[in-house]
Amino acid sequence: MPAPDSDVITRIIHGVYYVGQCSILAPVFIGFRRWHLLSSGMRAMLYCCLMWTVMSIVGEFCRHAFNYNVIVWQLVDVMEMWFIGGVYYYTLQFRFRRYFPLIGVLYTLFALVDMFVINDVLHGMQNGLFTGNNYTLVVKHILLVTIILLYFEQSLRHLRNVALERDPVFVISVALLVFYAGTLVLFLVRNNESITLKSYVLTIPVLTVLNFLLNSTLAWAFWLVGKKQKKVLEPAPPSHFA
C-alpha cells in the first residue's frame, strides 16, 4: 500500500487544527450573552478568549499572506499572562496578588530578552522574531500553574457548602491547569527545529483535543455565571426536642 502523500497529511492536520481553533467561539458567544452577570475576573477571562480568537485569525492570515506568524504567537504568550493574571488578581485574596502587575512587567521584559538576546546567542544571526521562545513558554506555564494552585489553596481554606463544579472560576481553573500542564511539552516540540512530520502529526491531534476540552469547559463556566449554585450540605432540620 503506497504511503500517503505528505501534502494530503498536512491538509488533514490543518483541517483538524482549524476545527479545534474554531471551538473558541463557543465561550466568546456565551460570555458576551452573559456579560451583565460577569465579575471582573470572569470579564478578564472573556477578554482573553476574545484575544485568542482575534490573534488566531491574524496568525492564520499572516501565515498565508507572508508565510510568517511567529511574532503573533509570541505576542499571545505575553498577553495570556496579563489576561489570565487578571482573572486571579480579582479572585485571589492573598496579599501576594498586589505583586501581580510587577510580575507581569518582569515577565514581559523577560520575553523581550528571550526574543532579542537569548535567541541571538543560541541561534547566531537568527533572532527571536523567527524562532520560538522556549524559555518564555516554560516561565509562562510555571507562573500560570503556580497562580492556579494558589487559587486551589484559597478554595480549600474557604470551603463553602456549594458544589465546586458549579463555581465558574473553579471550573476555569481546572480547565486552564489541564491545558497548560498538557501543552507545555507539545509547544516545546513545536518550536524544535528538528521536528519531523511524524512528530507533527502526533502533536496536532493532541493539541486539538486539549483545545476542545479547554474551550468547551470555558463555555460551561460562562454558562454557570448567574446560575443558582447547588448546596452540598443542607442545614439540619430543626429538632422537635429543642
Automatic annotation (TrEMBL):
Descriptive protein name: Uncharacterized protein
Native organism: Hymenobacter psychrotolerans DSM 18569
Transmembrane segments: 12-32, 44-66, 72-92, 99-118, 138-156, 168-189, 201-225
Record keywords, A-Z: Membrane, Transmembrane, Transmembrane helix
Phylogenetic lineage: Bacteria, Pseudomonadati, Bacteroidota, Cytophagia, Cytophagales
Superkingdom, natural source: Bacteria
